[in-house]
């Protein structure tokens, strides 16, 4: 047997930093969703991604940092998709309903990822809790932008207050719905829209 005939191990190509970061985010998010924040370690992320611990620490420094990065990416994708869903609807009330339907569809079809977004505040402390709060405020700001387009004559403070209220109402209705599987998504959307229109009805342009 010649030297040339001996099988050589495949060359393992080095992944670019951006691709590695995305891969680690995918792995970390899956683990956090499946196991919960407290049950996941940086070692778990490294093993699941088939990399060494230093690679994970180089990208995230801490488990909390990995968690924040996961939540940030989910929020960014969610906010973009929410805006697209609202833009496809015509009329202020229909846009409100479209946004609500999109929000509650995430509860219905991707419950674990929804829980990752909307029940994560209690797992972090200190600067990481502040970062998470900042992400949630950015999400609320995206709601306020949609409200401003739907009710341009409403006072700024009312729009800001309503954005916070909409986020809170949606979150609590989502949790309530998880305990009431007998209700349909359309039921929950109807409740959400009715609750909000009672507060903003006089300012909404119904076309």
TrEMBL record:
<keyword id="KW-0238">DNA-binding</keyword>
<feature type="DNA-binding region" description="H-T-H motif">
    <location>
        <begin position="41"/>
        <end position="60"/>
    </location>
</feature>
<dbReference type="GO" id="GO:0000976">
    <property type="term" value="F:transcription cis-regulatory region binding"/>
</dbReference>
<dbReference type="GO" id="GO:0003700">
    <property type="term" value="F:DNA-binding transcription factor activity"/>
</dbReference>
<dbReference type="Pfam" id="PF00440">
    <property type="entry name" value="TetR_N"/>
</dbReference>
<dbReference type="InterPro" id="IPR036271">
    <property type="entry name" value="Tet_transcr_reg_TetR-rel_C_sf"/>
</dbReference>
<protein>
    <submittedName>
        <fullName>TetR family transcriptional regulator</fullName>
    </submittedName>
</protein>
<dbReference type="GO" id="GO:0045892">
    <property type="term" value="P:negative regulation of DNA-templated transcription"/>
</dbReference>
<feature type="domain" description="HTH tetR-type">
    <location>
        <begin position="18"/>
        <end position="78"/>
    </location>
</feature>
<dbReference type="InterPro" id="IPR050109">
    <property type="entry name" value="HTH-type_TetR-like_transc_reg"/>
</dbReference>
<dbReference type="InterPro" id="IPR009057">
    <property type="entry name" value="Homeodomain-like_sf"/>
</dbReference>
<dbReference type="InterPro" id="IPR001647">
    <property type="entry name" value="HTH_TetR"/>
</dbReference>
<keyword id="KW-0804">Transcription</keyword>
<keyword id="KW-0805">Transcription regulation</keyword>
